[in-house]
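To the structural biology subgroup,

Please find below the input and predicted structure for CoA transferase, which we are adding to the shared reference set this quarter. The sequence is reproduced verbatim from the submission form. If anyone notices a discrepancy with their own records, reply to this email rather than editing the shared folder directly, so we keep one authoritative version.
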Amino acid sequence: MGPLRGAKILDASQIMAGPYCTMVLADLGAEVTKIEKIQGGDDSRQMGPFVNGESTCFYQINRNKKSIALDLKSEEGKEVFYELIKEADVFVENYRPGVTKSLGIDYERVKELNSGIIYCSISGYGQTGPYSHKGGFDLVAQGLTGLMSMTGEPGGRPLKSGIAVYDIGAGITAVYTILAAYIHKLKTGKGQMVDISLAETGLPWFTWEAAAYFSNQTIPQPTGHRHRVSAPYQAIKAKDSYMMIGCANQRTWEKLCNHVLGKPEWVKDERYLSNSLRHDHVEELEREIEEITMQKDTSYWIEKCEQAGVPAGPINNFGEALNNEHYLARDMIKELEHPVIGRMKVIGSPTKFSETEVEIHTPAPLLGQHSETVLQGLGYSSEQIQRLIEQGVVKQYSQTVQK
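Predicted structure (tokenized):
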């Protein structure tokens, strides 16, 4: 049984940050009801690749949820929402600031109906400040925070991260902030507004960069495959491919010289006496190391490093990563049966408990799959539900109807 069993989450978010947040909460046992637009639902449903017409992007981050397709612009749709919010512990949305007020589902209105609600807004720049009115996207946030200015090869074009770090980062930040607010609610009975900004999410991650800038105004520059401070802590070329070797301290460096590379004289080489000196001479250091490592394959060097206690590992492509024996043994790949897609894999949860469970038990819902079930739970009669469907206020998925 998950540690959040009994918590009720109402999710009106879409695409990535909000849905990732609520997926994590669902994995931890919370009951998540996803509110989607009547036409098309969550925008990620239109993002490929598709299997049997269903988006696998949507599938990956919406497991363990129920879906109700609801027209929030209609008065009847608002009434359904108000009934749902009365029973919720948490509400998550990622509309642009101002939209929820125009819909009549803003925090001030919602807390009139449920004073204990934890109302989480995820937006590009937050609910206040000179940029609050702007739409926010992961890539724009990567540029704003300085991340792209320090990513890539020296002198090259600024590069983005290979994944949507700030979308996922905002979702993770929302999770721990919601949980903190939930603990506060359990202690005091009081709910509150939670304001999460994509543009702020990643800024605290630049810890070493901030230390250098605030102390001596150093502006971090791109370092490509190398670490910004430590050396050798980087990609190293072997005979067949590249590998990662990490010597973050003197002891590990000496192990690399003595037990892996067979170069004990490097320990006393004036160029390499300290980490800072090695970093200053990293071009020479890399060249000399690769003169040795390019004589044998990565598997040979990784095994040597492991025997010597030097952190090292392969540079996998994504397929190799997902089939890695360690991830498989740690249950990081799960399989679920989807009514349209069929048998499909998802990435598992990195959270492991000794007493409670992480539950991955149902696939991502079809659009409006649980509309009737959710309304029945609110006390709506079959006649009332049918009338709402006929009026276009809600939509119930039917396998007999082509979407």
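Summary notes: The first strand starts at residue 8 and ends at 11. The radius of gyration is 26 Å.

Regards,
Lab coordination
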